[in-house]
Design a protein that fits this description.
By secondary structure, this protein is α/β, with parallel strands linked by helices. The protein contains twelve helices and 14 strands. It starts with 14 loop residues before the first helix and ends with a helix. The structure holds pyridoxal-5'-phosphate. Pyridoxal-5'-phosphate binds next to helix 3.
Length: about 375
């Protein structure tokens, strides 16, 4: 039997054509027609002024922090329940991450704790310079509450939508609601350019600044002139060709991931102690990964890892949920506002194979394999 992967690339019919065009026209460079077209597709889809394509989501987060003015020593609030790349760029800038726990409904940054952290920071004489909100596993965060708080205290919002392209929140696309939005086209994401990222904004001055920084901060002059530190963060026109083809099938990819989620949901309907994170009214998750939560009162501790090991033996890839950043050695001793939600999710959750190229048969085989371990 073939290995069942967690989330592998799913290439359509058109990608190779756009990549070939890049070769035929010799646009083998970090700019060109594919880059322009891909950025246009993204900005139209997200309904934002502009999208800058970049070499990775991590690069996009780095430039997002610089663009909203984060400097050495500044405090940046960041969701603790996320991939480390959400917070690494805070350290690149020698700024101080303060980690915020999640609420139970969407598993994303808790608005109440966020406001508490802001008030506490201000009382110590230091208003946070930015808030990083993540739509984890594709599930939209509580943006209304969060944006209201950010507006009250006048703090820029960086929306990490690396996992949430195609997700929606009250008729807005995830990645379009913050001061800046961040996208990823890594190989395991909902669509891929093999590796790549994007930065979105409605603020033209931010876009201009990011384009400048991403191309080594070259000033217009007949020689190489630089007034500030630059970065080599642009996306290759070859990779953007893959992205163009992928954008044409994004809708299908989202629908298929949602179908897979539904297969799991129905499959475990009558299994006691298993739950899934549900979409709050008015939101749509792209269901990048289906995540399952074992109730800690129903099952022995460590059941998630036990299931993972048994699935691995049967050539099915699954993974524990993100280990919260406040538990990571690299972020030791950083301030955190906690409520136990992310710790519980890490201890009892499991990510299931969710790639849009999985067959129904493969999903059903996964469900049966899990049931055999837990009964
Ligand atoms: C993947 C991911 C990133 C980083 O994106 P890359 O393109 O891999 O650099 C950032 N944040 C989250 C939540 C991610 O899942």
């Amino acid at each position: 039997m073939d290995k069942i992967w967690l989330s592998s690339p799913h290439i359509g019919d058109k990608e190779i054509q756009y990549v070939n065009e890049a070769f035929q026209t010799n646009w083998i460079a970090p700019l060109g027609p594919n880059v322009d077209a891909f950025e246009k597709q993204l900005s139209q889809f997200l309904k934002v002024n502009e999208v800058v394509s970049l070499s990775s989501g991590t690069a996009a987060l780095h430039l997002a922090l610089i663009a909203v003015g984060v400097k050495s020593g500044d405090i940046v609030l960041c969701q603790t329940f996320t991939f480390a790349a959400s917070a690494f760029p805070i350290l690149y800038l020698n700024a101080e991450p303060v980690f915020i726990d999640s609420e139970k409904e969407t598993w994303n940054i808790d608005p109440e704790l966020t406001e508490k952290a802001i008030i506490e920071s201000i009382s110590k004489g230091k208003k946070p310079a930015a808030i990083i909100i993540v739509h984890l596993y594709g599930m939209p965060a509580k943006m209304n509450e969060l944006l209201r708080i950010a507006k009250t205290y006048e703090i820029p919002v960086i929306e990490d939508a690396a996992e949430a392209l195609g997700s929606e929140y009250h008729n807005s696309k995830c990645g379009s609601m913050g001061t800046v939005g961040v996208l990823s086209f890594n190989g395991n994401k909902i669509i891929t350019t093999s590796g790549g990222g994007g930065l979105t904004s409605n603020d033209t001055s931010i876009i201009k600044k990011v384009r400048h920084l991403s191309a080594q901060s070259k000033e217009p002059a007949p020689y190489y002139l630089h007034k500030e530190i630059g970065y080599n963060y642009r996306l290759s026109n070859v990779c953007a060709g893959i992205g163009r083809g992928q954008m044409e099938v994004l809708h299908e990819r989202v629908n298929r991931r949602r179908e897979i989620y539904n297969l799991y949901k129905v499959g475990f309907k009558n299994t006691e102690g298993i739950s899934f994170v549900e979409e709050p009214l008015g939101t749509l998750s792209n269901r990048w990964l289906t995540t399952l939560l074992f109730d800690k009162h129903t099952f022995e501790t460590g059941i998630n890892n036990k299931v993972r090991i048994e699935l691995e033996r049967q050539k099915i890839e699954s993974r524990l949920l993100w280990k919260p950043l406040h538990q990571q050695p690299v972020f030791e001793n950083k301030t955190a506002f906690l409520n136990g939600v992310s710790d519980n999710l890490f201890e009892n959750g499991l990510c299931l194979p969710s790639g849009s190229n999985l067959t129904n048969q493969e999903v059903l085989r996964t469900i049966e394999s899990i049931k055999k371990v837990i009964v």
